[in-house]
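Lay summary

Proteins are chains of building blocks that fold into shapes. Our project writes down both the chain and a compact code for its shape. Here are two examples, one after the other.
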Amino acid sequence: MVESGTHHSLRTRVLLAFLAVYIIWGSTYLAIRIAIETLPPFMMAGVRFCVAGTALLAIAFARGAARPTRRQWRNAAIIGAFLLLGGNGGVVWAEQRVPSGLTAVVIASVPLWMALLEWARGESGRPGRRVALGLFCGMAGVALLVNSKGDAGRHTVDPLGALVLVLGSASWAWGSLVARKADLPRSPFLATAMEMLSGGVLLLLWGAVQGEFTRFDVQAVSLRSVLATGYLVVFGALVAFTAYVYLLGATTPTRVSTYAFVNPLVAVVIGAVFAGERIPPSGLAAALVIVLGVVLIVTVRRPPPAARGLTQDARKPVAGRAAPPAVLAPALAPARGVDSEGATPL
């Protein structure tokens, strides 16, 4: 009876963790759109990650994490530049032009870029039929989405915004691959905190270069933008990230990776219901093709670590280095021993 109750309690915790990862990370795209209504995009993102990174740093040290080395800080800064300045920075800028739901769909193409970059770097063999089909579907879906048109023949997605999102996805994928072999702390909270802090500072510096600080008018900031930013910090970067790390140890990597194609669908629904974002049938069709491509790649069975040219020690499972992911955001580096191909809410 006790064992049955314990099993039921475990299933409940796992279910709640999945709901947090699916719904919270899927909702961060709309939260970003609301936050940048009255807050400069790079300033908002920089503050968000600096605050979240500081909180995670405190959690890591409270859990007994060893102090990082100078080399680890340097690696975290490089990874943070690709993931947050390039990846999340592209998202917050593009959401000034692209609906939040479609932003999530384009960002879902990160696994496609990771598969291509792995092949180009010689880290994987020639893509099999399933991966090749996934790449074809994903890239075809992105092309269809960018070229889809709505009422009066207007483009569904702003071309420049779409280009920035595609480049941001590629930047996120590259940073994720670099993180796989980088010397970083084994603590998931400490490694992610360092990447958040480094990326947050870079976002603030880029915002300053863009003149955001000189144009910033604090009196023009709305309460809903402030609350949205707080939501991104507390729920997007802390609550959902903790749930994600828990899932890495509580269930299989394949099940955890399902967030990669669930998040964009959640984002589309939330954007339509709460923000009135209208997506024409051609845009929805393109989104489904992209998600199909992601499903084919994320769920493919991967060779064991040794067969991929990595040492067993380098890929040894630990209490979760988190994988990227949308938006981008909370889980910033691939987990050792876990082949996560998705993208978190940025």
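And here is the second example, written the same way.
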Amino acid sequence: MQLNSNRMVCLVFLFAFIGGPIHAADAESPVTIGATVSLEGKYREPSDMIHKAYKFWADKINRGGGLLGRQVKLILYNDKSDDDLTRQYYGKLIEEDKVDLVFSPYSTPLTLAASEVTEQHGMLMLAVAAASKQPWKNGPRYLFQMYAPADRQFIGLLDLMARQNLMTLSVIYDDASDYNVSTVHGIGEWADTFDIKIVFQEAYRDGRRELPGLLKDVKTTGAGALILSAYSPDCYELLRLLGEMNYRPPVLAMPIAPIHPDFQKNAGDMANRVFSPSQWEPDKRIPFPGTRRFDEEFTQFAGRRPSYHAASAFSACQILKMAVSDTKSINNKVLRDYIASLDTVTVLGRFKVDYSGKQVGHNSFVIQWQNGKKEIVWPKKMQTAEPLF
């Protein structure tokens, strides 16, 4: 496979174990693991967390002796948030670089693109950042979901709204991504359950061009809540526009961007009271084993606290290590069969998939930014603060 060298940015990280006695296994070839990360484009912000988590895990595992006594070598390419480039690079990783294993990219669209290649080659892939069901529609055998599904991510917020008697909702979303489509489909189903009326719902493709007009329409509805389902750039654009309009409904929510540690820094005062679904938070009230240690060690390694994107990537690494250690194999079919029947708990939470590989064990919760800090506001048992409206 030939790739335009001007379009390709390759990052190869070899983490060597330094110190301690030299064993025979040290002389063996490393276990090579390949993936793409988005160093550019609309997925750059969350993908940066996944990128750092892969590097953090590789460093940690190599300092502990590697996998099956062999060092781990990461081969990571910059997919630039592009589907076609992702397909090319996963083909290169498998056919030219001859990697032993693969990790997934960020996002539903890129995971779908990567899985089209990995499935052809029978390569196991734990999808660290794909909440939509789309990648599983064609019955892949080697693809497993880490996240709680997109259509269940706003249950908590709708529950909170119903309890506050906020019974009208506007929804706008970027329908270029199946993640957003799935999210909105779930919002509709659960709004019916809570008797919340969706008074305005519109899709768009070009946020900078279309969001101003959509927000004017939303304002006329007088709805008690607005949910935007989109990736980070459009989330920040929405907040900027709301500030210019001096308009804000009692409930404002969006996925992805608000869970990032830099959200307050990037959004300014508009960040206050924004709700978001979250898969995980670096908080002592998260009841999953290893949360505090992961938070501390990742922060020291990366220079910033982890988001749930980092936790999901690290958890996928935990599962892979468990599978390799228990089966004493890096054979992808052997690992696939092991993970398909696994029911365990990682830093992210419970991991259990159904017969198709979709996640059924893990659930998301709701955070809200309050006075410059993320607080868990739903469910009650994990709450660090009461929600503000």
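What can we say about the second shape? Residues 1-27 have pLDDT under 50 and may be disordered.
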